[in-house]
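Usage example:
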Amino acid sequence: MDNNNVLTSTQIVIEEALRKLGYGDDMIDLLKEPMRMLTVRIPVRMDDGKTRVFLGFRAQHNDAVGPTKGGVRFHPDVNELEVKALSIWMSLKCGIANLPYGGGKGGVICDPRKMSFRELERLSRGYVRAISQIVGPNKDIPAPDVMTNAQIMAWMMDEYSRIREFDSPGFITGKPLVLGGSLGRESATAKGVAIMIDEAMAKKGIPVAGSRVVIQGFGNAGSFLAKFMHDAGAKVVAISDVHGALYNEQGLDIEHLMDRRDSFGTVTNLFQNTISNDELLTLDCDVLVPAAIENQITASNADRIRAKIIVEAANGPTTLDATRIVTDKGILLIPDVLASAGGVIVSYFEWVQNNQGYYWSEAEVDAKLREMMVRGFNSVYELHALKKVDMRLAAYMVGVRKMAEAVRLRGWV
Ligand SMILES: NC(=O)C1=CN([C@@H]2O[C@H](COP(=O)(O)OP(=O)(O)OC[C@H]3O[C@@H](n4cnc5c(N)ncnc54)[C@H](O)[C@@H]3O)[C@@H](O)[C@H]2O)C=CC1
Ligand SMILES: O=C(O)CCC(=O)C(=O)O
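Running the assembly step on the lines above writes:
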């Protein structure tokens, strides 16, 4: 049976990783769940004058290494188990990148596509008021994720600054540049993924120029990635959004699609000859990048995947059963906790710049990002080869070991 419960499958791999590293039941018991999970009800005055109550979450996995860090998702399907799993994945990303953070994640059940600008502002501010006791620049630092963006970060930062009565740019990352954002943060997740594609293709001996790339999702991660791959000479033959997918074996006109997409990453609704997301996932290509949501590559389609490399820009797009199937087929899988770490790495740079009040050039940000991503890739790939474990397990082992060691040295276990 395919296990699509993202928390349970995360716990299975965390346990395996900790056992392989030599830790026992007590460490597993501590790290398999977030140390804190806050559920909040947020009253929001809607434009029609009525009050609607939204349910929100903030999970903090573990702060033995440092403050917790991770995005906030606004989505109708977000739920407690997903937010818990996402907070654990954030710990693993921070561990692989060697950032001084543990993982955190937040979510609010809502559909921003059906809300006005002012309703979204009131919800964003209400969420910050509701979680303000457990977050802060040295406690837990939010950031953007699915259907949240720099404008929402600006409102959240402003609300937190009002509560604390001083300007607090380091409370949140992914802010607009004029409010202390970092150059390069907006496209950082995609840039990190592009760096991982370079490394993976080098391992497989496939040149980037002329390669065929398929990307599921055309939001922040997917659209910038399509542009970077196109600029690098690859042929982006298919992209998709929640409504469907576009395919052209000669390569799509990425500039045109970037120009036409809306702020939620939707564009395929403007075209007639679309294919389905399932058809997109099984297209013949060199690199397949799921960059949308969880549980897209599952036991029911994994044996039909024809890509040579899968690079997970999305969090949790491949189930555990599917991981086994694609690995057995010889597909090189670059797991989410490694592949999509570019976002949190540049968020870390943003926080460092906020703390020191001195801002870097984009070239500096890019060079540091590349160095950290490549170092992370090498650690995971080498462990995978040395211990003969799949890339996901190797990534979990690299990602959790610093945190486990910090927990042990602090004497918590
Ligand atoms: N924004 C960031 O900095 C980071 C994002 N990620 C992950 O990358 C993924 C995408 O995030 P963003 O690009 O920020 O989100 P976004 O909200 O900007 O875009 C999401 C895209 O996925 C599409 N989509 C949604 N549901 C879909 C479905 N059922 N089937 C196909 N496509 C669907 C949307 O239409 C849109 O094109 C998520 O898993 C997110 O957690 C990971 C690291 C950092
Ligand atoms: O930029 C950050 O702090 C977190 C990004 C994020 O939520 C993620 O990597 O899933």
